[in-house]
Amino acid sequence: MSIKLDLGAWNSIFAVPSKVVDEGLKFSDGVKLKILLFVLRNSGSEFDENKISDVTGVNVTDIPEALDYWVSMGILKCDDGTYFPSSDSNQAVNNANNIKVQSENSYKEESESLLPVIKPEKQTNLNTANTSQETKEQEAEPKKHFTVAKPQKPDYVFTSQRLAVDEELKILVEEAQMALGKTLSNSDCSTLLMLKDTCGLPLDVILMLIQYCISIDKGNMRTVEKIGIAWADDGIYSVEAADNKIRLAKQLNKYFSIVSSAFGLQNVGSPTKKQLEYSQRWIGDWKFSPEMLREAYERCVDSKGTMKFNYIDGILKRWHGSNIKSPSELKQFESGSNKATTKSTRKASYDIDELEKINILDD
User: pLDDT tens across 220-252, in order?
Assistant: First the structure.
């Protein structure tokens, strides 16, 4: 893959965007910084992974991940192998173009023209007051942990360095090894460091996460990483929040287990988010019994030849709307004690034509 960074007027200036230090430095490692510095230094030139590897000493396989990291941080954006400043940096690039024109007169003029970019002009009293008010409002809000769109695990060198000086990380690794009953690999340790630093999960929350994964027979670091990132996205940063999350997850899995048993499903694996939502609605909200779930399942298979969760949901929705909760109530609703009255007034408990429309979209 050919790689090219085009910074326009910045091609002759080796500059590092302040956002790299302000937001990207804490969660990056030596490999990622090497890659960024190289592409910034060689802006305007075209090169590939082999060239980067020869100059920086970074393994070729680590280069795409490093570039993806700076894209996820909003420093760069990629278009067909060519990297550009992100949309947040467009104004800075425009300023740089102006600087380039002025620099043709003299180096002194170029240096002076940089000042407005490096140090913004002084705000008016009104703007200062507004900024002060906004700052107070931001400080009043609870601090949020920062999680990149696509968290990147640190390399083993950086992880080893942190293990040598970070006592909390040492405790986390030791506790995780005891809980999982195995020695963690370098990759496993990097996962824990990512959850701790990049995702911002506290140590006790990560340990609760590991215990939860073990309780559902998925005590492996791949599952810990997947659920940990989801917890960070959902703002699970306290023991109380983690406890509520675990209780909710167990309840949803219990509902799905009842549904799976009613449908006669075996070895279904992990349910999808949509399947959990259906299970919550059918059992937690509408209070249907396994017998009613089975009845809806059989009617779906008889009509469609296969099981469709959304089709079954349509049937149950109509039964719920008619306040039908048991097989006897369903039988009475559909047959009625007075056949003559039934023929003239009875409505079907579900409409096949309407359910056909529901079935257009699969689960």
Answer: 999 999 999 999 999 999 999 999 999 999 999
**Residues in a beta bridge with 343:** none
d(CA 185, CA 283): 42
* pLDDT for 7: 61
Q: Would you give the DSSP letter of residue 20?
A: I
Coil, helix or strand for 295? Answer: helix
Q: Check residue 44 and give left, alpha or beta (phi > 0: left; psi -120 to 50: alpha).
A: left
In the chain the first and final C-alpha atoms are separated, in Å, by 37
3-state secondary structure (DSSP) of residue 120: coil
Per-residue pLDDT tens over the stretch 172-207? 999 999 999 999 999 999 999 999 999 999 999 999
Which of 362, 277, 354, 291 lies closest to 318 in space, CA to CA?
Answer: 354
What pTM value is reported for the model? 0.52
Question: Going by C-beta distance under 8 Å and a sequence separation of 6 or more, which residues neighbour residue 314?
Answer: 350, 354, 355, 358, 359
Higher model confidence: residue 216 or residue 337? 216
Beta bridge partners of 78: 83
Domains of the chain listed by start with CATH number: 2-93 (1.10.10.10), 156-248 (1.10.10), 258-358 (no CATH)
- 133 CA to centre of own chain: 32
User: Which two three-digit tokens encode residue 252?
Assistant: 């949803």
